[in-house]
Amino acid sequence: MTDTGALIPEGYDEFLRGLKERIRTAQVRAALAVNRELVLLYWRIGQDILERQRQSGWGSKVIDRLAADLRSAFPEMSGFSPRNLKYMRAFAEAWPDEDFVQQVAAQLPWFHNCTILDKLKNLAERIWYAQQTIENGWSRNILIHLKLRCFVVIDLKMDQFRPEYAGKMNFYLSAVDDLLKHSSDQPSLGIILCKTKKKMVVEYALRDTSKPLGVAEYRITAALPERLKGNLPSIEDLEAELSETDNLEDYDE
Length: 253
Prior knowledge:
With 253 residues, the protein is mainly α. The protein folds into 2 domains: 12-145, no CATH class; 152-252, no CATH class. It has helices at 12-56, 61-73, 82-94, 98-103, 110-119, 123-136, 140-145, 163-179, 199-206, 235-252; strands at 152-156, 189-194, 213-217. It has a 3-stranded parallel β-sheet, covered by helices on one side. Strand 1, helix 8 and strand 2 (189-194) form a beta-alpha-beta unit.
């Protein structure tokens, strides 16, 4: 029996790791290429169906016959159900620009594209969600339970509420609305959490504020639950961090 371990030359492990990485990269590229070609194929089928219906007056029942004939001709391929052919038609109708399909939509799995068609009717929203899905790698499940309505900004204070806290929160909300908020989102919400608050001070501080924000008190429990110990910073750590931040703000001012 040959001792293969004794035959491994110097540098073999590094060489093997490099090969594995190259193969994995090729596998990912191949999968992306297959997906891209499939989405483009579906888009072109949808375009052909649209063109026939517009020019020759084909009715919707033709899709049922077409689905049966395609499945008979290509039994090894899935995706030629009447429902999916209707998605192809809707997909082509939603994205008439082939350049956009090649550059954006074809980078998404087919059922991601179907989900965007189902959930969104506005073109700008569809474009935004398609681009964000690519950028963030959202799964289809995330894309379905995902409902972006507004950003929530939370400011935790270690002492009693002060009127100037409202001014800072107003600044934070303006920055978020300008830099992060999408046109379809609602105005950002601000929540100031303080150790204590005086109702009249809060009322005066927020009276002329046009942005949606609120002030609430928090309570500290006597002991941190066991499952959270070691995963969250202590009160002392938070106080030290906030103290350092306040010092930096005083320096900037």
